[in-house]
Please model this.
Amino acid sequence: MHGALDRSTRLATAPALGVRGLSVAYHDRPVLWNVQLELYRGSLMAVVGPNGAGKSTLLRAVLGMVPVLAGDIAVFGGTLAEQRRRVAYVPQRSGIDWDFPTTVFEVVRMGTYGRLGWLRRPGAAERERALAALEMVDMVEFAGQQIGALSAGQQQRVLLARAFAQDAELYLMDEPFVGVDAPTEAALVRLLQELRDRGRTLLVVHHDLATVPEYFDSVALLYRRVVACGPVEAAFTEPNIAATYGARRVGGGTC
Model:
């Protein structure tokens, strides 16, 4: 009994995400090496780095979508299998088959399936959650439209709405602002900040360095390893940015 109580306390107080010594390779080519990262609950963290730095791979490794050479990943103190329902993923829009014959509403309602189990069918509660998520991203009027008829920005909103419908506690987002116009981006950033203020935790791959201080409270600068990580005001410095994007890169930072 004492051991069970200790485990319960550990799970309740653990970071939303803990990555220790994570290494990933594709065809014997290292993509991530000894990555150390800790993301505390109620944080909105950007992951930034040049193309090929391993940003998307980091998210996919956390989700068990790519094989891991070494390292440990803890989600709310447990394994991904134990905590999967608490995690939502927003992939890059370019990785989705937008020609698939389904509607906006059906895509967003898919976000509710994880809580249903194998035998239950979606009902009124799931419909309401899906509509509420569409309202969050201002897409209710497009609910019956085929996804292939949407603009790039509208498609991105649909992906976010599907994640919001899941009502997760940890959100992993891969370039969620790509392809959206400036007003849409501003609205989506406000949504992410509101989620953070409600205690949700968000890890967001982001490409625009100029907006990092405005959008995020913490940042991880990544080039295969974590170069620097922490609150934006401490980690997002010119030397750390230069080390991440410049010719001379250093690694081994922790979060």
